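ping. complex inputs:
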Amino acid sequence: MDAILIRGGGPLRGKIQVSGAKNAALPILCATLLSDGASRLRNVPALRDIETTAALLRFLGRDVTVTAPEVHVAGGSDVRPEAPYELVKQMRASVLVLGPLVARFGRAKVSLPGGCQIGARPIDQHLKGLEALGCSIRLERGYVIAEGPENGGRLRGSEVYFDIPTVTGTENLMMAAALAKGRTTLVNAAREPEVEELGRVLNKMGAEVDGAGTDVIHVKGSERGKLVPFDHAIIPDRIEAGTYMVAAAIAEGSDVVLEGAQVSDLEALIVKMRAAGVEVTSEGQCLRVCRRGPLRAVNVTTAPHPGFPTDMQAQFLVLMCLARGESVITETIFENRFQHVPELQRMGAAIALRGRTAVVQGVEALNGASVMATDLRASASLVIAGLVASGETEVRRVYHIDRGYERIVEKLSGVGARIERVRGAEA
Ligand code: EPU
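pong. complex structure:
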């Protein structure tokens, strides 16, 4: 298994190009199932999760060519509407084929994703929403079996209330509603930019989606039973951009420009970075991050968009490890998203965990160590810690990072980090 080796050191200077958004590309790839013919996605990041989705679409019967940053998906209605455990267990977002499959083909058999390192992550809201559209749902031997009304018929538009805003749940229901008969209203919908992006693509495909990006989404189902193929360039990845913003702020004297960052999607993070004493300015399509003085402690509580993203909690916590004073970081979205904490403690961080809250006392410096984490964002936070830790840090289980960060070693070494990938290191 590969590892990332980092020699902590000085400031980062230069430019980093932000890639396309993983969590926008995944539902959009699944939306291709709503149409026949050839669709083209541009600005798709070269990531393991994209390959997994491509493999799933191929299993279903689609013809998928991945030549990053482009993905072409073609195919007709000859589809096997089944997502096997082997693929779903590699990536929970595979559940995003459930809505399109049952809406288009009248039935779907999708493996339940099971538990996850960061929390239980049930899909009850997805299922409840599909039931509201007339699906019958049964669980059999670890699979969800969904069927349209009267033995695989067309879904019926309805009102769906989400008990909590769920990103992939909202996306699944938007895709299902796009082919349902009549109008659907999704209430308490997730407002993330990736949901808004899916709404844009569904509209390009001929659906009528209104309100994506707000908490009430209206969808008028297409009369034709399928949508049309599309050509679309994916929005920039706000979490990748945010991760490099924190990386740029971790060492004093850094001055990094992120090219192609979508500033409006990063507001909650920018406010907290500035409160921590980091200079963040936007210049056109670029975001400049400079760190000239000491870091100040600030408190952060994660929340659904437009609140502070849970996907940035681990990285921001590392910044607070080196701030003056005490900061309180509260995770409200996932129940087990502090896996980076014990590893950071081994690097000399002073963190006390109390349930869903981490109380961080800033320290003068971190020490390099051999560390690992079992989720994507926690792994990224350990790389950031390594950038300033004294001596050498080895981040193991790099395959988590490969799921969500395109060429992270090249991007960070391009701004002066001393970082390399070591092939076949110990697991
Ligand atoms: N939830 C339920 N029932 C459901 C669905 C969700 O109880 O039916 C709960 C979850 O357990 C969680 C909360 O609702 O406590 C929010 O979860 P959500 O459904 O919004 O998460 P998700 O759709 O599974 C997406 C991203 C995650 C990101 C979360 C939160 C994708 C593919 N994944 O997951 O991204 O953390 O939204 O913003 O879009 C990552 O990229 O590292 C990542 C984990």
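The pocket of EPU is lined by residues 23, 26, 92-93, 119, 121-126, 164, 166-169, 190, 194, 310-311, 333-334, 376-377, 404 (CB under 6 Å).
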